[in-house]
Amino acid sequence: HEYKEKYKHLLYQKKFLDGVFTAIKYNVMKG
User: Fold this and answer.
1) Cα 9 to Cα 4: distance, rounded to the nearest angstrom
2) How far apart are CA 31 and CA 27, in angstroms?
3) Tens digits of per-residue pLDDT, 3-31?
4) pTM of the prediction?
5) CA-to-CA distance for 21 and 6, rounded, in angstroms?
6) How many helices (H) and strands (E) does the chain have?
7) Residue environment code for 3-30, b if the CB has 16+ CB neighbours within 10 A, otherwise e
8) CA distance linking residue 25 with residue 17, whole number of Å
């Protein structure tokens, strides 16, 4: 159970970082 929670947290963190990276890339392409 503990492993599952940790994995879920890592997945959430990756999704968040992907979103930030996409936003930065989008801003660079625009500007």
Assistant:
1) 9
2) 6
3) 999 999 999 999 999 999 999 999 999 98
4) 0.64
5) 22
6) 1, 0
7) eeeeeeeeeeeeeeeeeeeeeeeeeeee
8) 12
| Per-residue pLDDT at 1 | 79
Look up residue 12 and give its amino acid. Y
Q: Rounded to the nearest 10 degrees, how much is the dihedral formed by the CA atoms of 9, 10, 11, 13?
A: 90
Query: What region does 24 belong to: left with phi over 0, alpha with psi -120 to 50, or beta?
Result: alpha
**What pLDDT, on a 0 to 100 scale, did the predictor assign at position 9?**
97
